[in-house]
Design goal:
single chain; 3 helices; 5 strands
Length: 139
């Protein structure tokens, strides 16, 4: 590319090249600024913290086996219960800390409305740890 030309026809043509030198200069200045300021951004304070040892106290949550057989009968840990009795036990279990886990076993022939009622009763009592128990398929 000629910078000075005495040709009057080519002197007014647009330049199709970008001058990269100013862009590189700006990039290098920004790089130096980041290199200088990066160590200043770490605000670490050296402290000698006291050491203590203690055992973690983890309370084990109880487990309730709730079953519904094919006829719709309800069982609380193997003991037959009515729906009203199950609701009272759900309410009592909902107030315990930590809340027990409810393992729901439902027969495959039981109508879904019994399972839905049980889930609604447990939810109304404030129970949040509900799980379905199933048998794996045999190959």
């Amino acid at each position: 590319m000629a910078f000075a030309s005495f040709d009057s026809q080519r002197s007014s043509a647009p330049v199709a090249e970008i001058n990269m030198v100013p862009l590189i200069d700006v990039m290098l200045v920004l790089l130096v600024i980041f290199i200088v300021t990066a160590p200043l951004l770490t605000h670490a304070v050296k402290l000698e913290l006291p050491r203590a040892s203690a055992q973690v106290n983890q309370a084990k949550a109880d487990k309730v086996e709730f079953a519904i057989d094919a006829s719709g009968a309800l069982y609380w840990n193997g003991e037959p219960v009515s729906r009203e009795d199950a609701n009272t036990r759900f309410a009592a279990a909902g107030k315990q800390q930590p809340q027990p886990e409810i393992h729901l076993r439902a027969d495959q022939a039981v109508p879904y409305k019994h399972v839905a009622r049980t889930l609604a009763d447990a939810s109304r009592a404030g129970l949040t740890k509900l799980g379905f128990v199933s048998e794996p398929d045999k190959p």
